[in-house]
């Protein structure tokens, strides 16, 4: 292989790769669809010209047919009038008209066939364009979906699931510790309040019992009305009697 061929191959491979990377399938397909649609008006104009030629030949044929009929009538009228010279002139025109009619008929047949072929070609092109357009739209949708998948893949690659998972676990442990501490404080607070309430209730009951005991002692004359003596200053018998009344009161 020559040096030029190798260089040409290298340049083709290099620039071909660059062009392929810069090509956007969606833009290329959309441009192709627009080009196909832009050809339709030109194709319609071509078909219209073929059909116009066919109709023009058809009108010429009708005119030549009528001309042949008129010349035939004139020839017959000239012969009846004894004007053979005029009849001969009309016969010459009739032959030319018949020749033109034959040629025009052949041209009309070709033009009719050409019109049918042009219409068929136009219809086939439109059908192919519609099919290509639907296929292109499907490919464009696939290209868009591929782009979304590529973006999602890039996002997933940049998304570090391990770091976020550790953050969630750390926050969960922190919240659990705070909840446990708050629950413990509530339990301690309720226990402290309950113990204080029980202590107050016991103190109040003791005070009530002492008041009732003093009231019994006063009613029994064991204590003066204005002066309260210590409980140890009572006689032993009185003390035992007062204790029996106090126990009986507690039992009640």
**CATH architecture call of the largest domain:** Orthogonal Bundle
From the helix content, strand content and strand pairing, which structural class follows? mainly alpha
Q: What characterizes the major β-sheet?
A: none
Supply the CATH superfamily name of the largest domain: Helix Hairpins
Describe this structure in words.
- With 252 residues, the protein is mainly alpha-helical.
- The chain has helices at 3-22, 25-80, 84-158, 161-219, 236-251.
- Helix 2 runs antiparallel to helix 3 (84-158) and helix 4 (161-219) packs across helix 5.
- It is rod-shaped, with a radius of gyration of 62 Å.
Identify the notable features of this structure and list them briefly:
252 residues; Helix Hairpins
Structural topology:
Layout: H1 3-22, H2 25-80, H3 84-158, H4 161-219, H5 236-251
Write a compact overview of the structure shown.
This protein is mainly alpha-helical. Helix content is 90%, strand content 0%.
């Amino acid at each position: 292989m020559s040096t030029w061929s190798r260089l040409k191959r290298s340049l083709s491979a290099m620039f071909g790769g660059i062009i392929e990377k810069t090509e956007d399938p969606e833009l290329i397909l959309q441009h192709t669809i627009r080009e196909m649609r832009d050809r339709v008006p030109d194709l319609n104009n071509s078909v219209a010209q073929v059909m116009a030629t066919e109709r023009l030949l058809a009108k010429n044929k009708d005119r030549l047919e009528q001309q042949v009929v008129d010349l035939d009538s004139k020839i017959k009228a000239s012969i009846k009038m004894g004007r053979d010279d005029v009849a001969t002139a009309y016969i010459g025109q009739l032959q030319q008209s018949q020749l033109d009619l034959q040629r025009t008929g052949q041209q009309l047949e070709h033009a009719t066939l050409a019109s049918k072929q042009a219409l068929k070609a136009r219809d086939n092109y439109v059908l192919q364009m519609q099919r290509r357009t639907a296929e292109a739209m499907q490919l464009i949708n696939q290209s868009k979906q591929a782009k979304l998948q590529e973006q999602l893949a890039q996002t997933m690659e940049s998304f570090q699931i391990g770091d976020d998972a550790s953050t969630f676990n750390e926050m969960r442990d922190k919240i659990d510790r705070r909840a446990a501490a708050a629950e413990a404080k509530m339990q301690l607070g309720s226990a402290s309040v309950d113990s204080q309430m029980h202590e107050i209730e016991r103190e109040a009951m003791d005070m009530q019992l002492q008041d009732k005991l003093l009231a019994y002692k006063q009613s029994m004359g064991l204590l003066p009305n204005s002066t309260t003596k210590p409980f140890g200053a009572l006689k032993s018998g009185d003390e035992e009697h007062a204790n029996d009344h106090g126990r009986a009161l507690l039992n009640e």
